[in-house]
Amino acid sequence: xxxxxxxxxxxxxxxxxxxxxxxxxxxxxxxxxxxxxxxxxxxxxxxxxxxxxxxxxxxxxxxxxxxxxxxxxxxxxxxxxxxxxxxxxxxxxxxxxxxxxxxxxxxxxxxxxxxxxxxxxxxxxxxxxxxxxxxxxxxxxxxxxxxxxxxxxxxxxxxxxxxxxxxxxxxxxxxxxxxxxxxxxxxxxxxxxxxxxxxxxxxxxxxxxxxxxxxxxxxxxxxxxxxxxxxxxxxxxxxxxxxxxxxxxxxxxxxxxxxxxxxxxxxxxxxxxxxxxxxxxxxxxxxxxxxxxxxxxxxxxxxxxxxxxxxxxxxxxxxxxxxxxxxxxxxxxxxxxxxxxxxxxxxxxxxxxxxxxxxxxxxxxxxxxxxxxxxxxxxxxxxxxxxxxxxxxxxxxxxxxxxxxxxxxxxxxxxxxxxxxxxxxxxxxxxxxxxxxxxxxxxxxxxxxxxxxxxxxxxxxxxxxxxxxxxxxxxxxxx
Amino acid sequence: xxxxxxxxxxxxxxxxxxxxxxxxxxxxxxxxxxxxxxxxxxxxxxxxxxxxxxxxxxxxxxxxxxxxxxxxxxxxxxxxxxxxxxxxxxxxxxxxxxxxxxxxxxxxxxxxxxxxxxxxxxxxxxxxxxxxxxxxxxxxxxxxxxxxxxxxxxxxxxxxxxxxxxxxxxxxxxxxxxxxxxxxxxxxxxxxxxxxxxxxxxxxxxxxxxxxxxxxxxxxxxxxxxxxxxxxxxxxxxxxxxxxxxxxxxxxxxxxxxxxxxxxxxxxxxxxxxxxxxxxxxxxxxxxxxxxxxxxxxxxxxxxxxxxxxxxxxxxxxxxxxxxxxxxxxxxxxxxxxx
Lengths: 479, 339
Description:
Number of domains of chain A: 2
CATH superfamily of chain B: MetI-like
Distance between the termini of chain A: 28 Å
Oligomer: heterodimer
CATH class of the largest domain in chain A: Alpha Beta
CATH architecture of the largest domain in chain A: 3-Layer(aba) Sandwich
Number of strands of chain A: 13
Radius of gyration of chain A: 22 Å
Number of domains of chain B: 1
Shape of chain A: globular
Helix content of chain B: 55-70%
Order of helices and strands of chain B: HHHHHHHHHHHHHH
Strand order of the largest sheet of chain A: 2-1-3-12-6
Largest interface: A-B, 62 and 73 residues
CATH superfamily of the largest domain in chain A: Periplasmic binding protein-like II
CATH topology of chain B: MetI-like fold
Number of strands of chain B: 0
């Protein structure tokens, strides 16, 4: 599933993912044995091994001191982006470092496959910890390298990597003052629409919620709806709500919700935005039935049947729906609307939480190789290759040309990023604390009209309180 | 391997006819450990038992132990926390509601499946015309085969098919309902409404198994002496009465087995629920314990807690099985074992 906070840009239909997951789980979960055997671990391995810890050599060509003729073990999430972009970077690395070979293996079952390797003390050297079966970062954070050393290192062209990145893209990988993960793919959260349809009707994407309501009335005249949603992706509306409220109320809204504060959901900017969304629901501008509709089917109601005008999502949406998008759709993104036309942050401000968290386990056999792999990926050649083949930007800026390789969605992402400048923000507490399932429950009820803004806010506060008060959950202080 | 054996070979010792020893009253089952017997025991008992211990008992014990730890699933160490996990489960609304949903399935699914498949079995075995020999409805062979079809389809496929049938916008069900003029079902989200999601899911599971249990019951009814049915008919018993007083008691053993199987399946239900409502359904109304285990272990990284849930589920399963056996024995008297 592609939840906004779950780093899972998907190009493949969900049935396959659900099927894989269900089938694999079915194997584990036959009754009795089921529940019990699924918990079994392999024996604990010894901590000793041929671990070569990364030592900063100062050599710009080989800053981490990768041993010649060593092997790098890379495990890459085989989702919407596939693994070929990693293989591309692997080839570059092999060309740069004498005799080093990189073994790239793809999987969708990151947690299931790597769990015994972490327990046994022989994890891979670099992991793209993404997808529905990603390992919760809190479970492994203490076993990961601080990746700040990669950010401080020069890229293959000799420029310091820190100077090549978009602003505010590393924060979501911070864990206890350590950069535990580098999220590679930049994701722009926006309201997506068909430029063709909007131009034909003389519509413009709404800048305020009142404009959104007016647009909803216009849509109704043509028997269309303003929005649609799918049951597994109801949480996309949480992202839109938060983005809108953060723009209205400023950064304090983001800090309050992400730090699970006891009064986070009493914030006035949040409640005002929520009230507008409630009005959208009450006016019947949501396409009915979303709570029972599989999310890619719901998305097709927007991109294929065009029964709904707008869809809030991350920028993976173009790739995800490319086989179910109407001709001449010209998919374009716009920043989230706000309640007033004078919000704390400009209208152009966007949520650009990056996805695809890359981590380097400290106990890998070749951590230097893992770090080097990440350095190569953050260099111009690999980043350009990614943008070109996946039509999505990485966190490396300035590698997408003006024509955006012919993709309207990518072009609008770059335009939104440029428009926002440093007015970008990111958060990933929903995925971090595993809240998505609970959020979906609340939003499915809210969007289908069977609950209201008050219930939603109270419910969100309750989820947040429960996690805050659970001592067994490691909290991350967001700043 | 070889136990001290005074006789040159086992075969000789047994076959010697002239041995006068009073101990020579060879009782069956007290044979010596000759090679034949040892290898037999090793192959047919030793290997399976070792396998069972390694692959079943050991993981069970291990999981039970993990349930007493705060293991995240990814660390080499498992901090011991005693019964904390169980205390947390008792206070966890999410888990308790999932347990409630699993128990609902446990009560409803086997009952509905078994009653319905018994009714169908009756129709195709002796529900036919009351004149002539005792027989089923016309074309019962066809019904039998057709109703078995769903059982052949893998669970995940059934889940996907039905989630399409329940699709609010262009699903078969809403299409049919609106076609006959029930306009309120336009875009009705069967799996997205807290009041209908669970019943809709139950229908799917029942649909998947009804044919299989019908076939099972047909075979069981066939094994009842036909004269009993004829006698009942001569005594003026109608089909319903015959079903209740002749067929039902005659197949009690099969019903018990079916009940236990269906019950265990209902407690699992993972594939169906995951395919129909991977998010646990509206208001969590279709979230079952197995889904909760999966989520806790793999997305929240709390294997210790997940193991505790597993232990609770295992205990529920055992209690359920014991209850079914006890009830059947109570109803049928001590011969509950036969049939």
